[in-house]
Amino acid sequence: MRELKRRxxxxxxxxxxxxxxxxxxxxDPAKKYNVVFELEQGSNRWFxxxxxxxxxxx
Length: 58
What we know:
This protein has 58 residues and is an all-beta fold. Helix content is 0%, strand content 38%.
């Protein structure tokens, strides 16, 4: 099994991390995306998925 470890760092009053580039290779770089993290309660596993952002109205 492959694993990716990312450093969690403090930024102001919150914590942040970066999304590893290998996870982004299948995405179109011309589009904007939201990163969605989901927790599966039974197994306590986290999943990540990408949603294309809808065009925002100004």
